[in-house]
Amino acid sequence: MAIGLTLTYLTTKVPNFAYGSIVTIGIYSALSFYSLYGISPYGALPVAFILGSLTSAAIYLGILRTLARRGSSLVGLMIATLAIDIAFVGIFGLYSDYLYTAHRVIYATNFPQLPGDFSLFGVPGIAFAAPYSLAMITLGLFALLTETKFGVAMRASIENPSLARVLGINVEAVYIFAWMLAGGFAAMSGAYYSLWLPGGIDVGSKLIVEIFASSVLGGLASIYGAALGGVIIGASEILITTAGVDVFGSSVGIYQKGIPLVFMIITLLVLPQGLVSLKVGKAVRLIRTLTFARLLKYLHLRGN
Amino acid sequence: MLSVPSVIIFGIDIVTFSVDLLVIYAIYLVVSLTLNLEAGYSGIPNFGKAMFVAGGAAVAGSVSGRLSAFIVGINFSGDYSNSAPVIINKLNAALSLNPILSVEILLLGVALAAGIGAALGYLASYPAIRLREDYLGMLLLASAQFFQIFLRSYPPVIGGVQGIEVPDFFGWANTGPGARDIVILGVVILFAVSVYIYCERVARSPLGRTLRAIRDNEVASRALGKDDVAIRKRVIVVASAISGMAGALLTFYVESVGPDTWSRQDWTFPFWVIIILGGAANNSGVALGAFTYAFILKTTDKAKFLLQGILPSTTFNYLQYLTFASLLVLVLALRPEGILPEKPSLTLKRQSVAAIIETRATAPHQKREDSSLKEDG
């Protein structure tokens, strides 16, 4: 999820508060597929991806770009994304009311995790599927950004839009693509989310804190940082809470949601550029300069 | 014996409805004015307004009930939040016979709320003066969300999920039907008017001009010797204290406080709608925006109540969210300066400006060392 947020932040430099709602789109496509047709949330993944990317592009084209062209300030754009987020809570609410009245789907505003997961060695399949897709998405993005001409154009438009424009890159198209990709990932993660945790109309809006924390921790300007940040926030939330419950008893479990916030505050005050600004940098720079193919070759050589 | 006539049109009691509308309007106005002070004049994007209002409401609700039960001498077993439903009637009866005590506890609650608001504001101001506006917005939004989770999951404050009932400190005023609400209306309007006057005075003072200078060009104002860090800190603390007081008054009006009220949708977003709609950095615009918002909110609430059987009431809530969000985006796109745009601050009275122009016109070459002119610079 954080990867997508970072992508949208990179392109428009606006923290996208509506991003969480696109996650909810994924959750609701999974719910609809499951409750109307009995299809497992895995089957909803492609639809979620398409819906998410279309919505995300619509938000960018229809609202943010229009407002930016009319000279809205940064704060104005932030409020606009906040408004979109709240509009989405309304839309999902109406949709659940519709599901209830038209299809008798109960608990549509707040439902438990969805069944339909397969299991592998007695462990729910999602425990394999989610990390696997995270790895695939990160690698895929990495390959896209370093190996393809389009990826290079994308990096160029993100880092220096005016120069990229001079070189004949269609910066607008690149931005739209980035937003679509981001929306797609978000909605997909929403479909995964519904397999693991209870869903509801404002789940996405509440998740936004964790998503922001991951992005900020990783460094808002780095896609790889976002993946790292997501893993750290997710894991620490669970690990610290479990440890805390062991030590202080179950009453501390409720503060689980405070952990991302604490991380965010510490990162912002101590390391505002995020983890990627750390001077582990040598390794990072090495990876950055190596192209994907050379990296593979390098690994291959070492394997021999 | 004060009693309020009831005028019923279309099955709605217009007087009760208007009183309720005006009370809510006054409270919204106060919070919007403080947000205007922060966001409109000083450029601090406070996306965590819910936290400061909730802080005030929670402490007022939490302390006032326990304290009054202690003073009146009602014993309860276990925690107050659990026994409140049992003792609340006895408590209200005792309090309504003792107006002085009621008012004292009421004032104490409001003062505590101001204190907690200021404390939260002071905490928030620590990152506020160090971060860029986008990071700050995220941080405040996240803090407000966590604060709500804290209220919900830590029962000793306001009873966790269910919330707690708060005694009625206006029971002594209830001499006739609706009289209590009229008294509350008087109190909140007095409060709102004083906050309005205060904000307007700040806006017109040299401090107000300094705030705008910092908002528009931080570096330049710093170069002119303005301590932007200290000034921002002061703005956040004062604005948060007033928001806390507004939260306390709301709690005393509705006689209960629960955690689910203080969501971003209901207690941060509306104030942004109000100041964007009415016009940022313009207090009269904010007053207009707050009225528009409160009016739409309360009439649709009423419609929700009347159409209960036909449409599920949740549908109306969702439609409200959708309406206000679309309204905000439309205003941002079509009239970003709001209904009443920001105006250059008026520092002198119209007559004195006219007098100055006249003296200038009659004696154009004469240099004047008028102190009233200097004040403007």
Commentary on this structure:
The complex is a heterodimer of chains A (304) and B (377). Chain A has 13 helices and four strands. With 304 residues, chain A is mostly helical. The longest helix of chain A is centred in the N-terminal third of the chain and has 30 residues. Chain B folds into two domains: 264 residues, no CATH class; 32 residues. In chain B, the strands form two sheets. In chain B, strands 1-2 form a two-stranded antiparallel sheet. In chain B, strand 1 and strand 2 form a beta hairpin. The radius of gyration of chain B is 23 Å and the shape is globular. The C terminus of chain B is likely disordered. At the A-B interface, helix 3, helix 4, helix 9 and helix 11 of A face helix 5, helix 12 and helix 14 of B.
Task: Report the radius of gyration of chain A as a whole number of Å.
Answer: 20 Å
Biggest beta sheet summary of chain B? 2 strands, antiparallel
Low-confidence stretches of chain B: 368-377
The helix-and-strand class of chain A reads mainly alpha
Estimated radius of gyration of chain B: 23 Å
Biggest sheet strand line-up of chain B: 1-2
Count of individual helical segments of chain A: 13
State the order of secondary-structure elements of chain B, H for helix, E for strand.
EEHHHHHHEHHHHEHHHHHH
Number of strands of chain B: 4
The CA-CA distance between the termini of chain A, in Å, is: 36 Å
Number of helices of chain B: 16
Shape of chain A: globular
Give the rounded overall mean pLDDT of chain B.
83
Strand order of the largest sheet of chain A: 1-4
Order of helices and strands of chain A: HHHHEEEHHHHEHHHHH
Overall structural class of chain B, as computed from helix and strand content, comes to mainly alpha
Outline of chain B: globular
- Ends apart, CA distance between termini of chain B: 55 Å
Share in helix of chain B: over 70%
